[in-house]
Amino acid sequence: MLNQTDLNLFKQNGYLVIKPEKILSNKIILELKDTCNNIFPKSTDRNTLFTQNSFIFNNASYFKNTSKNNANKLFGFRATAQGWNVSKGLAKYIENNKLLSCAKQILDTNTLSLHTSALIKVYPGCDGEPNKLHVDTSGFVDDTLNFAKNNNFVLNTLIYLNDVTKGLAPMRVCPKSHLDFIKINEYFNKLNNTKKFTNNMHAAGIGIDENIVKELGYKIKNIYGKAGTIIFMSGNLLHSATKNETKKSRIHFNFNFSRRDVKEIRKLNFKGLVRDQKDYKNFSNQFNDKKIINRSYNNTLANNLLNFFYKYKFKIKNRLINTL
């Protein structure tokens, strides 16, 4: 599906942008857009719930990401509908043969694990991550530095469901930063006067200062595109969400894959299934390849033992390092 030029661009830059209809048809994009319209209200909706800074509405979570107020109650909000809360799930889109083929090529594997899937709406006024960049890796593994050092990564896939133009919260990336994950972290270690093996490459919500990244000589690029544009991105790449400065909302489909044989990657999504009173079996039945969701969604003894093993292996490693 992807040619060697595509794969080389991904390896060099840490991300790859695919134009609309090369992988997913316009019909599929319209279906996903309609699903978003059925889940997420318009910014002009007057529901009394929207006076809170965070809440659950129609099986989606809402978080206010601005200090400003506006007549529109959803001004500054970011909304997320997890895959298990979407009617019939998102399995048929995730398991699109062309899409899976591309992910397998990039990850150089025949078997995949799915760790997240969600539909997201960014309302007008949402600030994104001002002056910050983050990586995804630390949100999936404990021993982040060793994981990145061994050239492992989680594949973040983002699909624009409407045209994303200037000001409409485009994703921004720091090309080639994935190649220097350890080098950049070491720089921040010296800057923060922290120990050599301290991880400073944080996930969203913490991030790192973009001005320092620029001082190191890296560029930051906004990604614009028509509805149906697909962005494949290494979880080791510095990137961030930007502010929605328009009167429109941006909607997109986001999910993360990994190689199935890399066992330390996980998300504790089974906790979300329990919280939202969803049955794992009903959710898994939506997938043709039921093993694709086993690692991060299934609350099995094996998964719990693996989570315990990697968590405490990292804790012991840290204690040993800190005694040196």
Give an overview of the whole structure.
The protein is 31% helix and 19% strand. It has 324 residues and is an alpha+beta fold. The chain has one domain (4-323): Sandwich (Jelly Rolls), CATH 2.60.120. The strands form 3 sheets. An 8-stranded antiparallel beta sheet has the order 1-11-7-13-5-4-3-2. Strands 10-8-12 form a 3-stranded antiparallel beta sheet, with no helix packed on it. Strand 2 and strand 3 (60-64) form a beta hairpin. The longest helix has 23 residues, at 301-323.
Q: Layout of SSEs?
A:
Blueprint: H1 4-13, E1 15-18, H2 26-39, E2 54-57, E3 60-64, E4 77-82, H3 91-94, H4 97-107, E5 112-122, E6 132-133, H5 144-149, E7 155-160, E8 171-173, H6 181-192, E9 208-209, H7 210-215, E10 221-223, E11 230-234, E12 239-240, E13 250-259, H8 269-275, H9 280-284, H10 294-297, H11 301-323
